[in-house]
Amino acid sequence: MLLTSALQIRPIADQDRAEVLEIARELVTAADTYAFEPDIDDESLWRYWNPQEPRSGGYVASMGQKVVGVFVIKPNHPGPAGHVANASYAVGVRARGRGVGRQMGEASLRCAVELGYLAMQFNIVISTNQAAIRLWESMGFQIVGTIPRGFRHKDGRLVDHHIMHRSLLGVSGV
Hints:
Blueprint: E1 7-11, H1 17-30, H2 42-49, E2 57-63, E3 66-75, E4 84-91, H3 100-114, E5 119-126, H4 130-138, E6 142-152, E7 158-167
Parallel strand pairs: 4-5
Antiparallel strand pairs: 1-2, 2-3, 3-4, 5-7, 6-7
């Protein structure tokens, strides 16, 4: 299903805090795609999605006045590995399956180029999150490694997680 209203992607702002935290809490509660501790506090979640470090940025996707998704770009590692970006994404439960993730993914690639990155890497893509794996593969990411039984679902089941990577060479800037 495609979006019925124009999706706008912009840098995160302080007034987005409540809606971003609502989406982040959905992730923490589900405990099936992110390695957040269940008791993580709101301030830590806000800092995660709204980083203040150099060459980092938080962004929201909104439809009208409603934030429906959030993503963050930051260096995957410092120093000599600082040319590789890391990114994280979250789409609110009510907006899933409507193309928000793809549009945020496409925007994040352009933003990463604008921030000076040459590649992007995802360190933990849970093997049971098949929708994310299909999306990232369709956008040129490859699984470059798998950590066996590297993620524990809240039911105690251990599943693999993947490291995914793609070059940003040839991606047009914003």
